[in-house]
């Protein structure tokens, strides 16, 4: 993958027309924009259909009331419009900024500034989903920065370091989640599992643990369920793309396909074991037990090293911490920190996808490609042609 530095971009792209870089399918900026919006609406509708279906399936509720169905529909439409506007206005703003810069394309106004500004469309998403998307994008930017530091030789992201980040992130995250357990309204967060609330009335029962029933059953149940989920995801990813030739698909299965299952299973298994051990040993439950439990559970990343999981644990913990800061009024209520963060991250990640693809998290390639209905790949190949040409 070609890294396009500021120097290279300014040299090769400065005087290139917006048609070449933003809308090769039509000479007119206006007409091309219309086609761009149509593609973005189609792509966004497809992308969010899968995302919303999966999220609703994971909620695990089988019977939905009419009101709930209406709300699911409304959220889906809002997400689709959000995705379509971000992808569509990318072309409109790109052409506009080129015009404003005196018909010149610059490194910053090519994608960074337009996609920072159109991040404001996140307001179309309902507040609960807004937080989840912001959290995901912050985690991706953190991953992107770490990869940049690695590629510049300042840091080497060994498996041990990734695991250490995940251990620290998990410890703080689970501790803050257990602290939040008391509240009526919890901060929306998408994480591998939600720890149990702290048990306070241990004196009234024989069980000091935060769960009912025997410890070994509780630990085994969590481990086996998550092992099953991990295995199902790995098998689906291995088999579904080759579903037309089942024999080939099944013969491609290897021991490596157990890695995700082992990671998920041991993550919850270690966490629950440590919590139960500490509750039994000390005779009462405390939110603080989540610190050693989460820290040791983080070791399970050794089964499937992944920088994305490591950074996600940190940003998840930061999100819960930010909620505390808002409640204590340390962050002023009228400061829309999540929205500003989202805009910043979106600009950064779109910029990274096109100009620094070698360090950009792979999720961004799939996201931008699907939401733009394939247009992004076309535009990227055009950019490469421009950069490689000797004008
Ligand atoms: Zn144009
Ligand atoms: Zn127990």
Automatic annotation (TrEMBL):
InterPro entries: Tmem135, TMEM135_N. It is a multi-pass membrane protein. The keyword Cell membrane does not apply. It comes from the Eukaryota. Its main location: membrane. Coiled coil: none annotated. It is found in: Endomembrane system. The chain crosses the membrane at residues 34-54, 75-101, 153-176, 224-240, 260-279, 286-303. GO terms for cellular component: endomembrane system. Keywords: Membrane, Transmembrane, Transmembrane helix. Residues 17-142 form the Transmembrane protein 135 N-terminal domain. Belongs to the TMEM135 family. This is Transmembrane protein 135 N-terminal domain-containing protein.
